[in-house]
Design brief:
The chain is an alpha+beta fold. Helices cover 51% and strands 17% of the residues.
Length: 105
């Protein structure tokens, strides 16, 4: 039983370290051939949105809005893939991970 507790504590520590590493990792996404870029952390926090001036057309604001959403989604998807890669081995492939208190997964 004591060995099982040590293993659980070790796994919890490794999971916390992986979560901290994800929070410090920046992931980029883009849309419109790079006209709009978004940067998120590996845990999914939006850090920045960069818009190339060529993407700004006062006559077509809707397209720019769509590009921003697409860039953020792309960055968030990439962050999710990174999190899955980093946390998957520690969680034994458990789906959702919601029960482990990992937001956004």
């Amino acid at each position: 039983m004591q060995q099982l507790m040590k293993q659980a504590q070790k796994m919890q520590q490794q999971l916390a370290e992986a979560q901290a590493e994800l929070a410090d990792t920046q992931v980029d996404g883009s849309a419109g051939g790079g006209l709009v870029k978004a940067t998120v952390t590996g845990s999914g926090e939006l850090l920045a949105v960069t818009i190339d001036p060529q993407a700004v057309d006062p006559e077509d604001v809707e397209t720019l809005q769509d590009l921003v959403v697409a860039a953020v989604r792309d960055a968030t998807r990439r962050a999710g893939e990174l999190a899955s890669d980093k946390l998957g081995p520690l969680t034994g492939g458990m789906g959702g991970l919601g029960g482990l208190g990992i937001p956004g997964l």
